[in-house]
Amino acid sequence: MQIPKEISQITGKLENAGFEAYLVGGCVRDIFMNREPKDWDITTSAKPNQITSLFEHSHYDNDFGTVRVVNDETENEKLKIVEVTTYRLDANYSDSRRPDSVTFSEKLEDDLKRRDFTINALALKVSRETTDVLYETAVDLFGGIKDLNNGIIKTVGKADERFNEDGLRILRAIRLSSELGFIINTETEKSIKKMAQKIDLIAKERIRDEFIKIIMSDRPMFGIEMMNRLNILGYIVPELEEGLGTKQNQAHSYDVWEHSLRAVQVTSNKKWPLEIRLAALFHDIGKPRTRRWSEEKEDWTFHGHEVVGSQMTEKILKNLRFSTKIIEKTVLLTRWHMFFTDTDQITLSAVRRMLSNVGVENIWDLMNVRIADRVGTGRPKEDPYRLRKYKSMIEEVIRDPISVKMLKIDGSKIMNVTQETPGPKIGYILNALLEEVLGDPKKNIEDYLKKRTMELSKLDNQTLRGLGEKGKEKIGIEEEKEKKILRGKYGVK
Question: What is this structure's pTM?
Fold first, then answer.
């Protein structure tokens, strides 16, 4: 595998100066899995002051031996800043979040044994000449390569000690399992259950970042199920657990819990963005609190669950320190996911009201939440007739209708050209001009329209009225043509 030249230049400069330099951590894991690394980390025997002396554009502003080497020349955003960290030993973690202090070391072994999981405790050298990975140089002190091959997540050393050092590692284990499709080692699982309360000590922002990675993985359903099974979910989003065993009405095959997880999995399969995934996960979160038995229907009802659910969603996301932008959109999609789609009763005015509620910029994301909701019920057809009909009506509402507004001239300009006062004649001229433009769009040029306006203004009112009515008739015909094409796009009438 070829390594970016920006990385080999850094490791090469360190080695030429007499220091050791290795790729380490997640990038090495990805290399062995034939995945493109998301970021590149380098570990070295050089001390921070020695690193900064070698790289003119570098910054060192922490106590953990990490120097940020800046490369302004690269166009790859992932390579503009590369972290280079001195071999180190961590002292005690008295707050279960960060080491009380670090001691710099000259031994790679010291750096590797402080890491979280065996698959992240691997190091590799890079060829100075070819930028190739030198696989034969792999340093694997804890069986990380074997665990990679077997698809196992296991801590370096004793699991209790690793999780006591940093409680976020508990959530990171679940995230890696969700991302990679790996199984968590039995002893590591037992420790996660035992140490679950450590999550309470972690900053909400750090929890949020790991939670996002689980949601954005290929297997969010698996990850959330694991969080619940290992007693972690209650420390992060306890509201989701309320859906466990909450039966729904006859339209649903699953309880609220499974339905919600299936819905978010649909969004992952579709590669949809974060806000849609969050809305799919939380869209029915208000159902357990609004569930009532209806004697009349002989079934469960959930009136107002979208309102209650949107309020709960806002509280959850604020607690996890999500950005205002993400919160607002997710809450919006959750609030309005129950829009009415009965093709016998839905009207264009109702669609316009929905567009007014969510905005044109959010309407298609809302439709995708609805698709996830539908598929999550166990229904195989994600795009039934009523949903296609609704989509066609959305496009009909948001498209620019054929009207005189399309012309490169308006009533005020016509009055300036002709010196006419406001009146029906101006409308006749506009409609007559539009009739011509519909027949030949190339005529929609202001200079031509002004010239043609002068010609039309000389006609008597009766003739001009006839041309205007002909224009209106043409507009109606063209409108119907466009609507027919639009409906054909969705296979609806």
Answer: 0.82
